[in-house]
Amino acid sequence: MNMEIVSIEKKTFEMMVAAFGALSEKVAALRRKSDTGRMERWLTGEEVCGQLRISPRTLQTL
């Protein structure tokens, strides 16, 4: 297994961290909406994209 170092700008990294934090908050909010804390059915990728207002490509990379 080879390890690679990927260098990105600090601002880009901070934006990624903020986006991940926002995603985490949205997931937590969706979870709170459920009465039992468990979803009765799995969401489709399309439904997830709609709920989170993200593209399928963004969902794929998360």
UniProtKB/TrEMBL annotation:
Q: Which GO terms describe its molecular function?
A: DNA binding
Keywords of the record: DNA-binding
Name by which UniProt lists this protein: DNA-binding protein
Matching entries from PANTHER family are given as: HELIX-TURN-HELIX DOMAIN-CONTAINING PROTEIN, PTHR34585
Which branch of life, at top level?
Bacteria
Q: Does the keyword DNA-binding apply?
A: yes
